[in-house]
Amino acid sequence: MESYLNHEHIARSRDGVEYHPLLPFLPPNARVLFLGSFPPQRKRWCMDFYYPNFINDHWRIEGAVFYGDRNHFVDEAAKTFRLADIVAFCREQGIAFFDTSTAIRRLQDNASDKFLEVVEPTDVGALIARLPRLLAVVTTGEKATATLCSSMHIATVPKVNSYVPIPDTFNEQGRQVVLYRLPSSSRAYPLAFDKKVEAYRRLFAFTRQADDDAPRLTHYDMGSGITAFSTTRHGGCSVGSYAAFNINGYCGDDEAHIRSNKESLCRLLGISSRQLVMPHQTHDTRVACIDKRLMAMTDGQRRKALEGIDALMTNLPGVCIGVSTADCIPILLHDPRQHAVCAIHAGWRGTVGRIAEKAVAAMTSTYGTQPADIVAQIGPGISLDSFEVGQEVYDAFAEAGFDMAAISRQYPSSTDATARKWHIDLPACNRLQLLRAGLTPPHVADSQTCTYLHCDQYFSARRLGIRSGRIFTAILIRPATRLTERG
């Protein structure tokens, strides 16, 4: 089994100073980060992991909360916990662990936090930065809570079973991370086991509710300081073929549902509705620059300026630009050198018109972008196998100079088994355009998600009808925060 011991820290512990003997346990899907003060002395351990003292009830509480069995993780005969089961459980549920102190000095030979002197507090901001989906940092004792509040500049110390926001601390979805305080799992803490279980159950209900209320986003790693995503069909209030999350106002959805969903997305991103910019697309190849002048326009002026636009670019922090699709191909671009981004809607007409190449050229002329610096993400769209087209569409691509052997195939018709129809690979077409524009192959990522085949997760006009919702694929340059500066 993988070792969670920090052998380097164990070796450097001397002269009464102990460095943390465990590596941080940080599953990338973690929504909860438990932070104690410091592990007990190793002579009290029954396993090489967090909460290793057999008489501490943390793992019994987790067993009772998730499995209805306080002994689910307990090996009573061996007087230990089932480490492999615990690790698998934490990875599945998204639960991370470390402590608020990286180095301490014990003033007495016992496990009490009261007699721990903090020599080196943990850089909790650096831990949070490694957990893109984090919702809550959880402390369970006075020492850990006080140490964290001091290091993270939290003015209000939360009471047990309550939480406070951590200033300037957001996850990559834009949601503010909170400090949630729980009763200690130590048996020295004067609270009945069942009441502790109920408190922990409320914590996990809180994080689940936060997830349920929020739009479910597919995130893309496009560089430091960038939030890039596609919405899914989950997390909103729209109904029918628009269910459940749609913010596009041009497809027939209820205006109240659109407004509510848009507000929910903006809350998640930590921006105002004025900072969310989306155009009315018409399958053209026009690219609009979102600058301070456009952001200062009235709503009516902005709608007029964004009419007939199929790609947006900006270098403004805090402005989320995006495009709507439901089988067409969304493309995101990020120039990390010039700090500029772009969102592109590439339907088959836009692809024939080489909108991806035109967007790269627009970034080059506006921001001085060098195409080789650009990082690109192709989002969910219809695949080659699902995109059956008529002869006129095939001819349009051929006349535009595309290598038809590379981007098309003939398959039996979906409506006439005796006939054969052309299929076009739109993601491949756009990838080839980006490479032709000067991007390098390692910098062009493809989600490889077919909307037609996965219409339960993403909107597909071919499967759900034209009067259905739209995916919103967007990119945001996050403003600098104090957390980033501290890090």
Structure description:
- There is one protein chain.
- The protein is an alpha/beta fold.
- It has two domains: 7-213, Uracil-DNA glycosylase-like domain (Uracil-DNA Glycosylase, subunit E); 217-387 and 425-486, CNF1/YfiH-like putative cysteine hydrolases, CATH 3.60.140.
- 29% of the residues lie in helices and 23% in strands.
- The protein contains 16 helices and 24 strands.
- The chain has helices at 7-12, 58-67, 83-93, 124-129, 142-151, 193-213, 255-269, 292-295, 299-305, 348-352, 355-367, 391-399, 404-407, 426-436, 461-464, 482-486, and strands at residues 17-19, 32-36, 74-75, 80-81, 95-99, 101-106, 116-121, 136-139, 162-170, 176-181, 217-220, 226-231, 276-277, 287-290, 311-314, 320-325, 329-335, 340-346, 375-378, 388-389, 408-412, 420-424, 444-446, 471-477.
- The strands form six sheets. Strands 14-15-18-17-19-23 form a six-stranded mixed β-sheet.
- Strand 9 and strand 10 (176-181) form a beta hairpin.
- Helix 2 (58-67) packs across helix 6.
- The longest helix is centred in the middle third of the chain and has 21 residues, at 193-213.
- It is elongated, with a radius of gyration of 26 Å.
- The relative contact order is 0.10.
- Mean pLDDT is 92; it is low at 481-487.
